[in-house]
Design brief:
The chain is an alpha+beta fold. The chain is built from four helices and nine strands; from the N terminus they run ββαβααββαββββ. It comes from Streptomyces chisholmiae.
Length: 149
């Protein structure tokens, strides 16, 4: 099935890309989540608009990505969250929480969709997350999760 991606999908493409995928993957996963639309001739016109929007948000060059990487890795990010007595969180830390904390700590604006958590952060302490700035540049950011008083 031919589809148009409306959001970035790891291993498949970015917003505005027209890709060919298996029917079941599109029908059962991509379309219900809203990360893709069916390809049509009318939809092809929407692709240009998606690409323009992506170009505005996108980090254009590797040099620019390396600059943002240096800024991110130089920032100390602290999150205050509610936790139980054993150090377990009530819920987990989300990419949106991390993006907000990076901005609050004086770092650059980071799109929450570019933050990759290996496993959900559900405990207090130090954690590392990856931020995919460019296909060739990944920044590793240290996050310290503290209990809110």
């Amino acid at each position: 099935m031919k589809i148009i991606l409306t959001n970035e999908v790891s291993g498949l493409g970015t917003a505005g890309d027209v890709v060919e995928v298996k029917d079941g993957y599109a029908r059962n996963y991509l379309l219900p989540r809203g990360v893709a639309i069916r390809w049509t001739k009318g939809g092809e016109k929407d692709v240009e608009q998606l690409r323009r929007g992506r170009k505005i948000r996108e980090i254009a060059s590797i040099e620019q990505a390396n600059d943002v990487k240096a800024q991110l890795e130089g920032v100390t990010v602290r999150l205050k969250v509610r936790a139980g007595s054993g150090g377990r969180l009530f819920g987990s830390v989300t990419p949106a929480d991390i993006a907000t904390a990076v901005k609050t700590a004086g770092g650059p604006d980071v799109d929450k969709r570019r933050i990759e958590l290996g496993n959900p952060i559900k405990s207090l302490g130090s954690h590392r997350v990856s931020v995919r700035l460019h296909p060739e540049v990944v920044a590793n950011v240290g996050i310290t999760v503290d209990a809110a008083k």
